[in-house]
């Protein structure tokens, strides 16, 4: 993070800024093909509603991207953010070996961030993550502009993969 004195606006990627619909098929088979799922991420189309919201918040906030994607996807993730013309900002990713549910990992990061900075808003598509963040006192915007996938929801909660 920078020494920016502006508040933070924290944005999820998958299902919030990136449309994962074209790669969810890799999670609908057994066993799930995680390598193919993440390898297809650079081809995600942007979600217009999320892109507009992140640009709006960038006028007054420092943007931080908080994703459940594993660290091994950093290069592709940062390239995707840049290719979409999204505002620059730090990207927080899950350790490659971290399989905790997204609601636990993301809430832990939000609490850590809040110790040093004011968080104006947290934007995510995962209802469980949003519920826990709200209970912890964060202002949450639920990203409900992408089609939800049952396989992706199961992965987020039970398998701690994204």
Indicate the topology:
Blueprint: E1 8-11, H1 34-39, H2 48-58, E2 62-70, H3 74-83, E3 91-94, H4 102-116, E4 119-124, H5 127-135, E5 140-142, H6 150-159
Parallel strand pairs: 1-2, 1-4, 2-3, 4-5
Helix pairs in contact: 4-5
Biggest sheet: strand arrangement: 3-2-1-4-5
Rg value: 15 Å
Put simply, the count of helices is 6
Shape: globular
User: What is the strand tally?
Assistant: 5
CATH-derived topology: Rossmann fold
Entry summary:
This protein has 162 residues and is α/β, with parallel strands linked by helices. It has six helices and five strands, in the order E-H-H-E-H-E-H-E-H-E-H.
Textual characterization of the structure:
There is one protein chain. With 162 residues, the protein is α/β, with parallel strands linked by helices. The chain has a single domain, classed as 3-Layer(aba) Sandwich (Rossmann fold). Helix content is 38%, strand content 16%. It has six helices and five strands, in the order βααβαβαβαβα. It has helices at 34-39, 48-58, 74-83, 102-116, 127-135, 150-159; strands at 8-11, 62-70, 91-94, 119-124, 140-142. It has a five-stranded parallel β-sheet with strand order 3-2-1-4-5. Helix 5 links the parallel strand 4 (119-124) and strand 5. Helix 4 (102-116) runs parallel beside helix 5. The two termini are 22 Å apart. The mean pLDDT is 90.
């Amino acid at each position: 993070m920078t020494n920016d004195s502006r508040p933070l606006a924290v944005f999820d990627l998958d299902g919030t800024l990136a449309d994962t619909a074209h790669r969810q098929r890799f999670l609908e088979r057994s066993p799930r093909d995680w390598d193919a799922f993440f390898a297809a991420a650079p081809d995600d189309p942007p979600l217009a509603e999320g892109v507009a919201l992140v640009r709006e918040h960038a006028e007054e906030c420092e943007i931080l991207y908080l994703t459940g994607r594993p660290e091994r996807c950093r290069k592709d993730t940062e390239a995707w953010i840049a290719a979409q013309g999204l505002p620059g900002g730090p990207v927080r990713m899950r350790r490659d070996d971290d399989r905790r549910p997204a609601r636990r990992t993301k809430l832990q990061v939000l609490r850590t961030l809040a110790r040093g900075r004011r968080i104006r808003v947290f934007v995510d598509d995962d209802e469980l993550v949003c519920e826990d963040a709200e209970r912890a006192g964060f202002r949450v915007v639920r990203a409900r502009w992408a089609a939800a996938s049952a396989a992706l929801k199961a992965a987020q909660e039970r398998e701690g993969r994204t």
